[in-house]
Amino acid sequence: MAGSEFTSSSIGLTSTIPVEILFAAGLEPVDLNNLFIRSVRPEQLLIQAESAGFPHNICAWIKGIYSVVMNHGITKVIAVTGGDCSNTIALAEILSRKGVQVIRFDFPSNRGRYELTTQMQRLCRTFSVRWKDVEMSKKRLDRIRKKLGKLDTLTFQDNVVTGEENHRFLVGSSDFGSDPDKYEMELDVFFDELKKRQPRKNEIRLGFLGVPPIFGNLYGYIEAFGGRVVYNEVQRQFSMPFETTDIVEQYLRYTYPYGIEGRIADISQAIQERSLDGLIHYTQTFCFRQLYDIILRDVLPIPILTLEGDRPGSLDNRTAIRLETFLEMLKQKKGDFF
User: Fold this and answer.
1) Which of 7, 207, 212, 312 could covalently link to 231 via disulfide, CB atoms 3.0 to 4.6 Å apart?
2) For 29, what's the count of Cα atoms within 13 Å in the CB-facing half-sphere?
3) For all residues of the chain together, what is the average pLDDT?
């Protein structure tokens, strides 16, 4: 997406927030993470940020967000300073000094309804949005989210959707491509294509845990060695797979910004419902969420491979070998013939 495509209605997001409020305000949310990783040369964006003074040992996503805001002339950003990366607090101050209007949004650490409602109402006041218009916006997006639930079912139950396709649509639901109508049209076209497919068989069924990967070829590599991701944990959470008419409840059930317990319950249910053979836990270098690997290994009942990524690009040889070895181990454990 070129910088010229952004307008005065565009507003950047450092993480998923209640986008219903922004659409109700007539704004066009832009997930800055997606803008970074889908750029033609994401590595160059990191070099640009490091040239501006960002240290090497800061998460690549933070540096990528900074550079895309600078390059695309985005003048307004909502920074999630509670419930996401703590480095976003400093990033918000840097962007402010660069002339960007920064609005902060905090998911409450106690997962309290009152506190979350207060944050959402503050955002409504900032953009002069009525609560009933937000509820109407939710109804519009719920129609798309229902279709995303169908896509997810077609992934793990009907076995006609690849892990990468699942990832692509679900991760895109953080901002609906800034245009819900266009996003829904692309989804409908995809469903038409699926009618011609035959179910996949004899594959190792994997769950992908953690933030979306910075590697560009991870899903393709998994499938080349007989595996398929049928559960993308955080990407699925972006799609808000919760049947509720209460928008506050929807974002209370969203597991990503809160503690590990909600994630464990969601993952445990997926292991049973989707008959997972193993889990890949992706962790981003220099991210505090790496520490959750200790807990996940303690409580989850199936094999876990932990992969760490730093900068965008293809899998390095060592990571590729570890992944291939893990899949071979799962094949032997499952006793299938491939």
Assistant:
1) 207
2) 26
3) 94
Please answer whether residues 239 and 148 qualify as being in contact, where contact means their C-beta atoms are separated by less than 8 angstroms: yes
pTM higher than 0.90: yes
Residue type, 165: E
CB 285 within 8 A of CB 60: yes
pLDDT given for residue 289 in this prediction: 84
CATH number of this structure's domain 144-334: 3.40.50.11900
Residues 24-67: tens digit of each pLDDT: 999 999 999 999 999 999 999 999 999 999 999 999 999 999 99
The strand ranges marked E within the chain are 10-13, 28-31, 76-82, 101-106, 204-209, 227-232, 278-284, 304-309
Strands 278-284 and 10-13, sheet pairing: unpaired
Percent of the chain with pLDDT over 70: 98
Q: Examine domains 8-132 and 144-334 and report if their fold is the same.
A: yes
- Integer Cα distance of 310 and 215 in angstroms: 9
**Is residue 161 within 8 Å of 55, Cβ to Cβ?**
no
Number of residues written out for the chain: 338
For 205-219, the pLDDT digits (tens) are 999 999 999 988 999
The SS3 of residue 131 is helix
Domain boundaries, the chain: 8-132, 144-334
Distance CA 2, CA 136 (A): 31
Q: What stretch of H or E contains 267?
A: helix 260-273
- Among 180, 203, 201, 186, which Cα is nearest to 151's? 186
As a whole number of angstroms, the distance between CA 174 and CA 164 comes to 16
Residue pair 60/312 in contact (Cβ under 8 Å)? The answer is yes
